[in-house]
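Hi support team,

I'm opening this ticket because the web form for multi-chain structure prediction keeps timing out on my end. I have pasted the exact lines I submitted so you can reproduce it. The total is 602 residues across two entries, so I didn't expect it to be a heavy job. Is there a limit I'm missing, or should I split the entries? Thanks in advance, R.K.
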Amino acid sequence: MIRPTTFIDSIRLTRYLRQDVLLASETFQHTGSFKFRATYHLASNIPNRHVLAASSGNFGQAIAYSCQLLGKRCTVVMPDNSAQVKIDAVREFGATVCLIDTRKISRKEKVNQLSRELEDVYVASSYDDDLVIAGNSTLGRELAALEGKVSTVVVPIGGGGLASGIITGLRESASTIKVVGAEPLLANDAARSLKAGKLICDTAEARTIADGARTLGLGQRNWEILKTAIPGIVEIPEDNIKEAVRLLYRFANLKVEPTGALGLAALLTEPERFRGKAVCCVVSGGNVDAEVYRSILAEGH
Amino acid sequence: MIRPTTFIDSIRLTRYLRQDVLLASETFQHTGSFKFRATYHLASNIPNRHVLAASSGNFGQAIAYSCQLLGKRCTVVMPDNSAQVKIDAVREFGATVCLIDTRKISRKEKVNQLSRELEDVYVASSYDDDLVIAGNSTLGRELAALEGKVSTVVVPIGGGGLASGIITGLRESASTIKVVGAEPLLANDAARSLKAGKLICDTAEARTIADGARTLGLGQRNWEILKTAIPGIVEIPEDNIKEAVRLLYRFANLKVEPTGALGLAALLTEPERFRGKAVCCVVSGGNVDAEVYRSILAEGH
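Hello R.K., no limit was hit. The queue was backed up. Here is the completed structure from your submission:
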């Protein structure tokens, strides 16, 4: 059911960056991001007939569609100020959307409350769950096929679900490919954790344009995998995230969301780290509001 | 060397249209459009060391890159009011760009003049050439693999190079898949030709946003193939072209140029023609200026 990633190499991008770069795009995965790998695996491997999750983004759509495909019920807790298109997308996939005023109740409190009320329900985290990591490991196994052609994979980091999954998949395939993380400078909890050698979490959501990386911290399970396997995390200024979105538009015909552009943005931010290496940038997703996308394109003029 | 097309099916797009639709995207072909299929085949199969063409769009980039790959010289005649990004792209691929003031000399006159001056030169038409049709037929052979799953392929029509190539490839594969054309209403010379049973050309370039379909008429070779093989051509209002660009953005994460959206736009324009059929829309290319793309997205609000 999971779609293979779409590999794209653009000679114009490679020449522009003076850097061998291959893109592994998850923008054409079901529901438009890598999240479906995790949610479909999760929903297929639990006995429960109902899945409950909090998400204002890609995880919500992905878990809703996975449950619809598998004939399970799904409830997604979303802030009532979420973009209407995102609420609509989750509903289109048959899930019940529970809108909350986050000034009155946190997502976590609402999930806890609902988990007591709903029957036979599984509470799904979008990253801190072994089933999520196992689902995302399917991308790691695909990337392992690049052995010999690519030495380094650059992966966006939010909660760490994607990076830990890719590392797991590469390990299962006995791959020697290295994983480097890419995180917004404004939400650099993972980079700080790695430097400190212990899990550090932010106390407030960062205002980075990369909304998939606004998580307060890595999950415990993700941290355990990342802390030994990641040689470093590139911390990316906002301007480079936007510039990477524009370069993918211009040179690769790829529509990506800001979080999805973090991998390429890492190459703009620390070119010397990657010089001479054959790099694959994972583009994690493509779902971005037209309004946001237009304003990013406009800044390029 | 030619990249296989990228098949994308979006459940959200299918549900929105209430119509089974598969996309065959050429936006990730080398140089961002199907044109590379034609130019690489052409440049590989001529003895000449120099290729000359007139193009302000995708053909110019594609022939320039093909010649660069094959170590041949390339000269592209472009109007001096062409978008700078397009001129730059052709130059990046090593071609000599010859800018002309089209009020003083036509592209055709300049090409004729240069063809007498340059040595060992092949003058390439972007559609009316057997090698171009043969190059584009590679896409028809790929589409033939959809036999049994898809009954109708919808193809943008400009000069007719893509449609005649696809028909040729499908025939070579003994496919029963039908080809329907998609043409801007403002540049409906092919539709008028089909109705009249003879090749009709416009006298002035139409101002359709689908710039790849602004050609004055079908090529003679393309017409000979299309006239017996195409059951009909859908004539598409400008608004539907733009709406199709937005739907591909929203539901398929696909960045396409207006001409590339013609196939999907045909489904919006004559839904009853396709109802109940399994349709594949060919997305011919993705190269669109950010300015134009932004304004199309903005109109959706």
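A quick check on our side: The longest strand of chain B covers residues 73-79. Let us know if the file doesn't open in your viewer.
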